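A quick aside before the break. I want you to see a complete sequence-to-structure record at least once, exactly as it would be stored in a machine-readable document. Don't worry about memorizing anything.
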Amino acid sequence: MKKILLTIICCISVCLFSYAQEVEEPDFAGEVLLLKNGESVGILEKNTVQIKTKAGASIYLTGIGSVKSRITVEGCCAKTTVKSSDDFKFVIKAVDNNTDPIAVISIFKFEEKKKERRAEVSSASTFGGGSSNNLNYVTFSAKKYGTSSYLITLNEKQAGQYGITVKNPNALDEKNLIVSSFAVED
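That is the input. The structure line, written in tokens, reads:
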């Protein structure tokens, strides 16, 4: 009886492992592959962002106020859309998958405007000081996937426009910030 039970457990484990690795990793580091119901939907669109800094009108009038820096992506909406009720995950290829994924992958929610999506990176005010790393981060869980990717599951799936960045921990300076974008609808 123990041998039969052990054989059944081994078969189930092999089937689950082979299902989880059925979809191939993306070709290049930084690419984000959307999986829906365990099947590949495609690579998310990538955008080069602009960093814009803007001061409030009061700074110019009175010398008191705030200045904000934001990353901005042109266009109101991401081309790839999923429903919050869908079973979706991401396969994100990095340089390797030996680093804690929280250190190299950032998922954040954009503020939506008519012609752009933006997210605040930092702010400073005359009397309040400054703050940085102000992105509206989304928590996720991750598992190693393949040889150099991560399988990412969002902990919350609220409606909105989102961005994903993948950093290279070996690079000293990353001047071009690339964001893969997607949207979640109710």
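Two observations worth writing down. The mean pLDDT is 85. Residues 24-49+73-114+132-185 form a domain with the Immunoglobulin-like fold (CATH 2.60.40). We'll return to this after the break.
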